[in-house]
Design a protein that fits this description.
By secondary structure, the protein is mainly alpha-helical. The chain is built from four helices and no strands. The N terminus is likely disordered.
Length: about 130
Amino acid sequence: SPLQLTRCSFFMSKYTLHFKYQAVLHYLHIRSQQRTADHYSISRTHLRRWIRAYQEGGIGALEHPQSKTMPQHRKNPFIADKPDHEKTQAELIEELCYMRAKVAYLKELKALSKKQTEKDKAKPSKH
């Protein structure tokens, strides 16, 4: 089931983590950078960077632009700096987008794991 795509801003980025992740998944499914870039109205350069980042570091690598001076990013960039009721609407929307992408990633991971387990069970034993 396709997930709703949004373009909230993450760390001054034009594209959300969720958007980048969906574009990468689309590419991994159809294996065409040009068609994926056209589908999401993005450049192939952006897409290639996201694919490489995802393959090297998973969904977390899509979170920030790569930088040599960038400190190690936290697992959750929205760890309570301030209580939810003090956050702006934009901050809450960014956090929501991040959490939705994280849930989508975990669902995909679970589905792939289940698929692999079923594949392993279907193989005849070599004993």
